[in-house]
Amino acid sequence: xxxxxxxxxxxxxxxxxxxxxxxxxxxxxxxxxxxxxxxxxxxxxxxxxxxxxxxxxxxxxxxxxxxxxxxxxxxxxxxxxxxxxxxxxxxxxxxxxxxxxxxxxxxxxxxxxxxxxxxxxxxxxxxxxxxxxxxxxxxxxxxxxxxxxxxxxxxxxxxxxxxxxxxxxxxxxxxxxxxxxxxxxxxxxxxxxxxxxxxxxxxxxxxxxxxxxxxxxxxxxxxxxxxxxxxxxxxxxxxxxxxxxxxxxxxxxxxxxxxxxxxxxxxxxxxxxxxxxxxxxxxxxxxxxxxxxxxxxxxxxxxxxxxxxxxxxxxxxxxxxxxxxxxxxxxxxxxxxxxxxxxxxxxxxxxxxxxxxxxxxxxxxxxxxxxxxxxxxxxxxxxxxxxxxxxxxxxxxxxxxxxxxxxxxxxxxxxxxxxxxxxxxxxxxxxxxxxxxxxxxxxxxxxxxxxxxxxxxxxxxxxxxxxxxxxxxxxxxxxxxxxxxxxxxxxxxxxxxxxxxxxxxxxxxxxxxxxxxxxxxxxxxxxxxxxxxxxxxxxxxxxxxxxxxxxxxxxxxxxxxxxxxxxxxxxxxxxxxxxxxxxxxxxxxxxxxxxxxxxxxxxxxxxxxxxxxxxxxxxxxxxxxxxxxxxxxxxxxxxxxxxxxxxxxxxxxxxxxxxxxxxxxxxxxxxxxxxxxx
Length: 678
Hints:
Neurolysin, domain 3; alpha+beta; 4 domains; five-stranded mixed beta sheet; Glutathione S-transferase Yfyf (Class Pi), Chain A, domain 2; 27 helices; two-stranded antiparallel sheet
């Protein structure tokens, strides 16, 4: 075995073959990419040069297992580029992305390879394949066809150029959003301008100012700073300033994404029209549970019809409530969170600052881990000896009830300038089986939760608790996978199915049995009082109509951008306004545009798929209904969910998996009832 000076090109001799982050340097990545691409090309050549008749093993499985080292290098690099980046790494990403796109195109456009795949696919009915093998064969064949393998050379060349440009543009879009988010800071030097802000938020803002050698208190557009500022600041002018800064990111500023966005939309459309599709959405949805654009629009419209009346009632109620407190103005967007928080406190005597002391991060983490133990019999043990990419990261060994290794779990909880905003689950290694060996996954959860301060540990808002449960649901999907092929394992499922395990876990946030177990005061150790638990449950549907309409507006905006049949001539903000007009409750803010920072659809994988969050809510509400009817910790139901959903990944069509778990197709009724809309 050749030993390289580049650690990325050697076999990892670490425990569980985990990434040895402490010896990986940025300079290692480019040569590792170049070398591993050539290794992958050799593996492809071995398939196409095989003189044996094409069959499932020597073609489909061989293709599935090719490029292993390249996949490993890419997963490490791009995960770091999201979670702990810098200017040099971003520049390298811009250099590497077209290279990888070119290699991917070379595979897809390889006529000899496609000929072998096509020959095996033509024999599908006679091959006596397992369900998962048939799914792999079908997916692989479709991936070639949907990437241009059947097109004439001129169109193939166009596909290549479009793909390369898109890889650059989507990367640039995300980098701009991160830069614009980090670029804004609000510094307050007059103590009276801190009116209304909780002590913990003020202390955290003081730390921001201190870190940046500034006087006073610093507030940023990162969620743990931005959200509580909008909820609690009594100074309306400052709320307006923060809101306008947040909502205008990459819109008419130095990180402007308008041209980038429109070019992405144009190229996506141009690409699919080469295949004969009318729109990008038509192309994408062909491989989704929703199937067609009109199904998505009808689904979102049905939800909008169900929620808009309640949203209007809520808006009017909040307007009247604000007036009762002396607000002699029409509510603007920067007023909503502020007055909503006050009304919630008045109605239910509960808010984030009342519940926050009971949701200390370490305690919540233990509670979520214990929930997984109770439901699925798995255990989590931290291993400080395992390598990690940042000092704030913890690494856990995950085992089953028999003590057998299941997965590594990396947790990375707090914001920093090198990390993108939001929260996500990802993997360094997906689960797969080969030569009788089960290669277990390495999963990561990355969040931007409230940081600990000099006097307090990390205390979570209720929304952050829910976010933790959400991302942990994705992690369970990855960690519990029992598939043969990595391309079908874990979260490698239809985009409108992938949110089921994550949103399913969110249900526990408002279950008394779980809250009683997890929530303890960080100072006294006292259990959360029963009356506070009840208030959390009672307030579950507070402003649920508004919440529904807001998510639907994002879905409609996404579908509008990706349902066009010709390049968009309108200004970005004008186009967005038209798309979201049916959902609007506020007057337009001229400086605002959400599309230019809508990373989910322009820098992530959710283009023509954002509706999937609501689609999956139907699934998760229906699934949790089965638990509620038998007890939320019911082992039999939990085991069925694990065996039929969490372990199966994308090894079968998602509706088949859901039917095996639930015994029936999902109904929209549990979601409407849970949300107080019916």
